[in-house]
Design a protein that fits this description.
Number of helices of chain A: 20
Pfam families (chain A): Cpn60_TCP1
Subcellular location (chain A): Cytoplasm
CATH topology of the largest domain in chain B: GROEL, domain 1
Largest sheet of chain B: 7 strands, mixed
Structural class of chain A: alpha+beta
Subunit structure (chain A): Component of the T-complex protein 1 (TCP1) complex.
CATH class of the largest domain in chain B: Mainly Alpha
Strand content of chain B: 15-25%
Distance between the termini of chain B: 21 Å
Radius of gyration of chain A: 38 Å
Structural class of chain B: alpha+beta
Strand content of chain A: 15-25%
GO molecular function (chain A): ATP binding; ATP hydrolysis activity; ATP-dependent protein folding chaperone; unfolded protein binding
Helix content of chain B: 40-55%
CATH architecture of the largest domain in chain B: Orthogonal Bundle
Keywords (chain A): ATP-binding, Chaperone, Cytoplasm, Nucleotide-binding
Number of domains of chain B: 2
CATH superfamily of the largest domain in chain B: GroEL-like equatorial domain
Oligomer: heterodimer
Largest sheet of chain A: 5 strands, mixed
Number of helices of chain B: 16
Chain lengths: 603, 540
Amino acid sequence: MLRRQAAPPPQNSPRRSLWAVYKSVEPRHRVLLGMAFMGFSMLGLWVSDKLEELLPPPAESRVTQPQVIVLKEGTDTSQGVPQLLSNIAACLAVCDTIRTTLGPRGMDKLIVDSQGRVTISNDGATIMKLLDVVQPAARTLVDIARAQDAEVGDGTTSVVLLAGELLKEVREHIEEGVGPQVIIKGLRRAAELAIGRIRELAVSVDRSDRAEFRALLEKCAATSMNSKLIGSQKEFFTKIVVDAVTRLDQDELNEDMIGIKKIPGGAMQDSLLVDGVAFKKSFSYAGFEQQPKAFDAPRIVCLNVELELKAEKDNAEVRVDKVSEYQAVVDAEWKIIFDKLDAILAAGANVVLSRLPIGDLATQYFADRNVFCAGRVSKDDLDRVCEATGCRVQSTTTGLAAAHLGTCERFEERQVGGQRFNIFRGCPQAKTCTIILRGGAEQFIDEVERSLHDSIMVVRRAVKNQSVVAGGGAIEMELSRYLREAARQIEGKQQLVIAAAARALEVIPRQLCENAGFDTTDFITQLRARHAQDPERAKWHGVDIAEEVVADMFAKFVWEPALVKINAIASAVEAACLILSVDETVTTQKSQDPMAAGQPMRR
Amino acid sequence: MSAVYTTDEYGRPFIIVREQDKKARTSGIEATKAHIMAAKTVANIVRTSLGPRGLDKVLISPDGDITISNDGATIMSQMAIENQIGRLLVELSKSQDDEIGDGTTGIVVLAGALLEQAEELLDRGIHPIRISDGFEQACKIAVAHLDQVSDVIPWSKSDTGDLFKCAKTSLGSKIVNKCHDQFAQIAVDAVLAVADLERKDVDFELIKMEGKVGGELADTELVRGVIIDKDFSHPQMPKVVKDARIAILTCPFEPPKPKTKHKLDITSVKEFEELQKYERDAFEGMVRRVKECGANIVACQWGFDDEANSLLLQHRLPAIRWVGGPEVELLAIATNGRIVPRFEDLSSEKLGRAGTVREVAYGTTNESMIVVEDCANSKAVTVFVRGGNKMIVEEAKRSLHDAMCVVRNLIVDNRVVYGGAAAEISCSLAVEREADQVSTIEQYAMRSFARALDAIPMALAENSGLPPIETLSFVKSQQVALGVSSLGVDCMDTGISDMKRQFVFDPLISKRQQFLLATQLVKMILKIDDVIVHKNDNQE
C-alpha cells in the first residue's frame, strides 16, 4: 500500500494529456461533463443577448453583426411615431424662422450666402429658398411656400405658418396614439369645410363698373404691400402696379410683359411706369454718339442678325490662287454686310434693334444715315418691344419690307440715374409696360422688386377672380369659429381634429399681434368673443394694426383675393397631411454626386 | 435660435439647414443693435471729411496703390468693407454718387446719425417698425420743408454767376480749393459746353478728363476740343497742323484682308513679286485716296506698319495711330467728322475739321499729347488736369466731377437750398415743430430724426474747429429768432453766417435725395431682425 502510494508512475501523472484524462474518466461522468459544458455556453449566449438589448451597440459596430444587408451601407433609417414627432419638430423650427415676417409690423431677414451675396427679404418664399433646408419633412414646407409663390404670388409666409400650426395642434393627438390616417382624414374634411365657407363669404365685385373694379384692385395690391419695405409708399406703388396690370392683355395677363428695370440711385418715389418699353443702353461702338437719339413715330425693326464684318463660316477657308483675286474676296465680304444694311435702310427703318451684336462698321453706317441702332438687346426686352410696337423679330434681312416694321409715338434715349436708357413710349398695341425702380442700394431695389412682383401677382389674380375677403386675420377668425361649430356636430375623433384645425387658423391673427407688439391673448379672446356673439355682423372683424384695435377689416379696405386664402389653406393642409403620412425616412448616404445629396427616399 | 440645431423628444439631434455649423446667426434686437454699431463705425470714418475744412483720407489698396480722397463715395468704395450693413452704406453713397454726384459724405453721416438715434429709441423699448414709421413721417416733413425754403437761382448761358457759386460750394471741401475759382469756372464752362439746354440733358460722356502728372494745379485747363494721349506716328512729321481736315479711320492701314480664313499659295517668284506689288499698290492707293479727298491729317483706330508710315511721311500726311474707340468717337463729334470704316468710303464731306492740331510735349519725360482745338463742333470738351503727383491729379479729377455734377443738377432743376447746414437746421426745426402735433409713439422717432439732422451742422462745426454745441445752438436760436432759414454754420470764419450772402448753395435735388435715401436705408436696416451668414471656408 505504502509502496504504491510512494511510487506513482512518473510518466503518467504530469505528462497525461487532457484527452488521456478525459478518457480515464468514467463514461457516465463524461456525459455529465458534456451536458454541463453545453448548459454553460447556453447561459453565456443568453446573457450576451440580454446585455445587447440593454446596451445598444454603436452604429458602426452593427456591421460586424451577422445581419442581412438590404440597404446600402450607411443608410439611416428611423421609423414610427418618434419619426413622425421629430418631423413635426423640424417643421416647427423652420416655421419659427419666418414667423416674425408676417404682417405690417413684420421684420426682414438678412441672409448672406456662401458666395457672399446679400439678400434682405420679407417674402416667405424667398427666405425659405435661401435657408437651404435639408431636413426632408421641413423641405415640404419650402416646397409649399414656393408653390404658393408660383400659384398666387402672395401669402407665402401665411401658408408655411398655417401648415406648421396645423402640425403643432395635431401633435398631441399623435402622442396620444390617434392614428395619423384618422387625423389626415379630419384635416382634409376641415379644409373642405373652410374652403366652402370662404366661397360662401367672398364678396364679388362687378367688373363692369370700371371705377369700382379699379378700387378693388388697388385695395388688394395695398394689402399685399403692407408688410413690405414699400409699405409706407403704398399709395404710390399701388397705382403703378394696378396701372401696369390693367395695361396688359386682360385675357392673357402674361406677367412677363411687365418689365422691371432696376437702377440704383434715386429714391423709391422716383420710380416710374413707362407705358411702353425701356431698356438699358447696350454696349456701343464708336460712332454711336453721332446717331440721332430721339424720334417721333420711329419705324422700328427688330432683328436677330449679326451686323458685323466677320468670317462667314468659322471652318471655311478661301483659297486664293491669284493676287488679283484677293481684292475680290474682300469685296465679296463687304458686299454681304452692305447688302444687309442696305436692305434695312430700304425698308425704311430708323431704329434698328438686334439681339446679336451690331459692329462698328454698321454703327457708323447707321450714324451716317441718321438711323439709331442698338445691338445685344436681351431677348425679353426685344420680345416686349415687338409686343408693344407690333413688329416681329426678323432672322434675315432679305425681303425686309415696311410691313415688318413697328412703330410707337416716341422713341428716345434718356439719362436715368447713372445709366442711359432707350425708351419707347406711347405704343399702339401697348399690351406691355416697364416699371423702372429706383432705390438707395441694390439689395433695397431687389426687395422692392420682390414686393412688387407679389402685388402684381395678387392683382392679376384679382382681375381673373373678382371675389375678395377681408385680411388682417379676419377671415381666419371667421373660419376658425365656423369650424369649431361644425366640429360639434361631428361624432368621433374627427371632431377633435377639426377643432384642432380651428385652433390652428388662429395663428394668423395671433402672429400679427405678436409682431406688432400687442397683447396677443387679449386680442385673440376679444376676436373670438366678437365672432361668437354675432357671427353675421362681426364676420369681418380682425386686427387693425395701424389703430391697435379690433375692427371691421372689410370696412378698413384691407382686402385680399379669396383665391389667395383658398390656395393657402389647401396647400397648408396638403403639406401637413403629407408630413403626417410619413412614418419612416430612409436617407441614403451622400454619394459622389453632390446633386444627389439630401434627396431622401420617402416611403 | 432653435431652427439651426434641434433635437427631438428622444434626444436625437437632426439637421434642418444644410451645413448649419458653418452658418452664423443673430436675431432679434441684438441683430439690430449689431447693425447700428457697424453703421456708426463706418459713418464715423467719413465724418471728419465733411465740409470745407474737412480732412482727407489716405487709402492704400492691397496692391499698394495710394488714393487720397475727400469724396465720401471714393473713400467708402476703397475701404473694402466686409460687414453687410457697412456694405449697404457703401451702396448708399454710391447711388448718391451715380444720381447726384455730390453730397456722398453727407448722406453717410446722416444715415449714421439716424441709426444712432434709433438705438436710443430701441433701448427705450420702442418697436423698430414704429421707429421707422416715425422717421418716414419726419422725412416727408423735412422734404416738404426743403421745397419751401428753396430758392430759384436764375441762370442763362451768358449769366453763369450763380452756377459758379454752387460749383464753388462743392469744391470747397476738396483739395483743389487752392485754385477754387479756376476749377469752378472750368466745371461750369465744361458742363455748359455740352449741355442740351432744351432737353435739360447733360451727357457726361462728352466731357473727357485727362490727367498728367507735372506742373501744378493752376495749370489745369479746359480744352474746347479733344486731347488724345498719343503722338504722331513719325517723329519727323510736322508738330502743328493749322486748319486741319481729319480723316477718321477705323480700318487698319494695310492691304485689306478677308475676315474668312484664307490661304494664298505662292508657287513662283513671279507670283511673289506680284504680291509685293499688290501690297505696295494698296498702300499707295490708300494714301492717294486720303490725299485726294483733301485730308491733311489721319487718325486711325488701328496701327500701320513702318512701310505705310514712311509713305505717309513722304506724302506729308501726319498720322495718329492706335487711337482708342471712345477717343475716335469724341474726335468725330468734336470735329463734325464721320468715322470712315474703309478707304473706299472716304470723301471730303466726311472729314472732320479743326482749327489746330498740335503735338504738345510735357516736361522732360518725352511724353506728348495731341491737342485738337477750335473744332467745328464745341460739344465735346476735355479737361486737362495737371498736378504735382498722381494722387493729387486723381483727386482733382474726382473733385471736378463732383462740381460738374452739381452744375448739371442745377441745369436740370435750378432750385437751391443753402449750404453750411442751413437747410438741415431749418428742417430740424420744422420736424420738431410738427412732432409735437403727433399723438402716437412716432412722435419720439420724429424728434430723434430732428436730432439726427443736427448731426450734420455739428460735424461741420467740429471739422472747422468751432465748438459744435455752441455753434449749433447759436445758429438755431438765430434761425428761430430772425425767421431766416439761410443761416448756417460759418465754416470759413468770415463772420457772416447768412449763407445767402456767403453764396454757399446746394442743389435742392441733392439735399432732397440725401434725406430720402438715408431714411429709406435706415428703415431697411431697422426692419431686419435676423441675420444668417454663410461663412466662407477660408475665413475660418
